[in-house]
Each structure stands twice: as structure tokens, then as C-alpha cells.
Amino acid sequence: MMGWLKRYWAILRKPSVHFSLGFLTLGGFLAGIIFWGGFNTALEVTNTEQFCIGCHEMEVNVYEELKETIHYTNRSGVRATCSDCHVPHGWTHKVARKMEASKEVWGWIFGTINTPEKFENKRRELAEREWHRLKANDSLECRNCHEFDSMDFTLQDPRAANAHSTALAGGDQTCIDCHKGIAHRLPDMTGVSR
Questions:
Q1: CA–CA separation, 6 vs 29, rounded Å?
Q2: Under 8 Å CB-to-CB from 26, ≥6 apart: which residues?
Q3: What pLDDT is attached to residue 194?
């Protein structure tokens, strides 16, 4: 055992060309910590509402619509921000969503929605993409705040209580199937069954 440690230590101390392997390993470890910290900091900065509405297109379109909903102002004072609904909370899903969002940055760079008219022309496409994503992940972002187990069906409107208890019992429905347009104005839904 001691011979193995001495050989290992000798390898770590042996210079590569200018630096020892131990120095390079320690340097790589420290660089990894700095990279990881920077990466996570960047992820968190891009999850802030200020970042999301930093571009004119989001601030004057969907953010203004959000301000008129219960997700923005309500009796309990609990408020949902952009990332609460559009970015999963779990790290793996969050990174995947950020990679997917790079397409949105590309669209911003090339001005595909830089005027209200262009935004309205793409509103349905953008909405359907979000609805599809939420349907595919079983409305994960909704369920971060809203849980069937915490719902008191007796305090709900009879229609809502029936729908929620049916969804709780099973089936292929998820939150977004009934709650499209809950935080943003619906696009022209001509030809779509809601």
C-alpha cells in the first residue's frame, strides 16, 4: 500500500513540461468549481423576471398581459414569475429547457417578433409550442405550485371540482388542456377545439 502511494505521489509531482501533474489536477479542479459556479449563476440570472422582460418584445406583449391575471396579483400575495411557468424547477429539466430556449434567442436576434404585428402573427405558433411542451411534461411547471392533493374541492366551483376530481382519478388530461390562456391572451383559436 505504501509503495502504491509513493508511486502515485511521484506521478503527481512529475512535471509535465512546465507544471507537475498534481498542479494541473488541482488547477483543473479549481477551474471546474469556478466554471460550475459561473454556469449555475448564469442559469439563475436567466430565470429572473427582469431578464425575461429585458427584451422589448416580452415586456410590451406577454408581460403586460400577465399583469392582468391572478398569477400576478391576488389576495394571498403569492406571485408567479415568467420562469415559474416556463422553466422547470428540477436541474436536469431546467438545463434542457434552457437549451431549447436558445431557439427563442435566435429568433430575438433576427427580429422574428420585434414588432407587435409580427408577435401577433406568431402568437398562435408560440402558444401551441408551449402548450405542447406542457402537455408532454404533464404540466410540470403548474404542478410545482398546484397539487391535486392540496385542493379542497368543496371550495371550488362545481364545474372546476368535477374537472379536477376527474383529472385526479386518472386519464390523459393535464392542467394545460383546460387552462390555456390562464396567464396570457389566447391567440386566434379559429378551427381549434378548446
A1: 22
A2: none
A3: 53
61-65, 69-73, 102-106, 180-184: range with lowest mean pLDDT? 102-106
- Residue 72 falls inside a structural domain: yes
Total domain count for the chain?
2
Question: What Å distances lie between residue 44 and 10, 11, 49, 98, CA to CA?
Answer: 42, 40, 11, 11
Whether residue 59 is found in the same domain as residue 38 = no
Vertex 96: Cα angle to 95 and 102 (nearest 5) = 90
Does 104 share its domain with 156?
Answer: yes
CB distance 78 to 132 below 8 Å:
no
**Domain co-membership, 146 together with 127:** yes
pLDDT for 32: 94
Q: What digits encode the pLDDT tens for the residues 19-32? A: 777 888 899 999 99
Cβ(179)–Cβ(119) below 8 Å: no
